[in-house]
TrEMBL record:
GO terms for molecular function: dioxygenase activity; metal ion binding. It comes from Mycena alexandri. PANTHER family: PHYTANOYL-COA DIOXYGENASE DOMAIN CONTAINING 1 (PTHR20883), PHYTANOYL-COA DIOXYGENASE DOMAIN-CONTAINING PROTEIN 1 (PTHR20883:SF15). Its cofactor is Fe cation. Keywords: Dioxygenase, Iron, Metal-binding, Oxidoreductase. It comes from the Eukaryota. This is Phytanoyl-CoA dioxygenase. Belongs to the PhyH family.
């Protein structure tokens, strides 16, 4: 259903009023989507983010349904019964399409950096809609890193506009954590999965996915939950709107 609907939306969306915004998770916030209104206002809308390598000289270099990494605002209440949080709140969801040949790498990160709360409470729900393999960019995880790696920075809306990272620890601590993470990098474990598999991602666990070098898509549906009792402030890039307030799952 979700896979079919995602593919339908990809056929339907119009490029005419599209800013050709690409989806990137990199640290450099130069010319990427980061900070632009199409991204910042995406929380309560269906928005379409293009693979970085799909836009050359301001033009798409492939059919639109093969260029997009799709975002869908609908919250799945699938986890009503799971008691990870006292009072869980579901945030915006995404369909990640990871297109053949160009589906970009997602660099090492933890999700609490991007959905920061005090104390950290992010939990990711990541559902494979298609088979995920080493060739098409399956997720990999650094086991135990959620216990040993502090959240060293948070992704924020900057007062002067746009977005960036705010450090949460001293530069010394951040350097040490980065060095340790580099030293253990070869301990990443690849999680291949089948369509329908649910992967629960602890907010502090380091994870990443490589570029899709295969000729197959790698569709996945993902959303995050946070704890209602934890502080979620106005610095976070994703803000609730009147059209779509964050949904309390058990309330
Ligand atoms: O699907 C991917 O490749 C990355 C997804 C991810 O990092 C997440 O859902 O938190
Ligand atoms: Fe993530």
């Amino acid at each position: 259903m979700l896979l079919a609907r995602s593919k339908e939306l990809l056929q339907e969306f119009s490029l005419e009023d599209h800013p050709l915004t690409k989806f990137t998770t990199g640290d450099d916030d130069g010319e990427g989507h980061i900070g632009d209104a199409y991204f910042l206002e995406s929380g309560d809308k269906i928005r379409y983010f293009l693979e970085e390598d799909a836009v050359v000289d301001g033009k798409l270099n492939r059919p639109k349904d093969r260029a997009v990494t799709l975002q869908n605002e609908r919250m799945r209440k699938l986890v009503r019964d799971l008691q990870f949080h006292v009072d869980p709140i579901a945030l915006q969801s995404m369909v990640i399409t990871k297109q053949p040949q160009i589906g970009g790498q997602v660099g090492e990160h933890n999700d609490s950096t991007f959905l920061y709360t005090e104390p950290p409470s992010a939990l990711g729900f990541w559902i494979a809609l298609e088979q995920c393999t080493a060739e098409n960019g399956a997720l990999s995880f650094l086991p135990g890193s959620h216990l040993t790696t502090p959240i060293t920075k948070r992704f924020v809306r900057l007062p002067e506009g746009g977005t960036g990272f705010e450090p949460l620890v001293t530069a010394e601590v951040a350097d040490r954590v980065a060095a340790e993470s580099r030293a253990t990098n070869n301990a990443y474990i690849l999680e291949t999965c089948e369509p329908g598999d649910l992967v629960l991602i602890h907010g502090a666990v380091l994870h990443k996915s490589e570029r899709n070098t295969s000729d197959k898509t790698r569709f996945a549906y993902t959303f995050h939950m946070i704890e209602a009792g934890a502080k979620y402030d106005e610095k976070n890039w994703l803000q609730p709107t009147p059209a779509m307030p964050f949904s309390r799952i058990l309330a």
